[in-house]
Amino acid sequence: MRDAATRQGPGRMLIAVYGIFAIAATSRSAVQLITRFDQAPVAYLLSAFAAVVYVLATITLALNARRVALVACAIELIGVVTVGFVSLFVPRAFPDATVWSTFGIGYGFIPLVLPVLGLLWLRKTA
């Protein structure tokens, strides 16, 4: 049972939410990069980066690859806090929103809460 620690109980819901965000962020960034890259390249590249982080977190949590999951969740938390502050205080830096803009307000602040829950779950199941 130890091998499946991150995907037991509440971990299943955490992985499901990460999976939903991986699909949503990947789809959104793909459309943005293909159709409007010249309008806000930094914002759209950040959305693509967020998508990669969500995919990585989903897979590593599901596979119980704890160290990589820890790094993915930490990068996600640093990213959402950094982009959140920059988007608040230097709004010109992001002419269009990213998944992490204003701490994930467009997604009900789930991008801010999700890495915290991921890190707490990794600690609890350690």
UniProtKB/TrEMBL annotation:
Lineage: Bacteria, Bacillati, Actinomycetota, Actinomycetes, Pseudonocardiales
Protein name (Swiss-Prot/TrEMBL): Integral membrane protein
Naturally occurring in which organism (per UniProt): Lentzea miocenica
UniProt KW keywords: Membrane, Transmembrane, Transmembrane helix
Source taxon at top rank: Bacteria
Membrane-crossing residue ranges in chain numbering: 12-31, 43-63, 70-90, 102-122
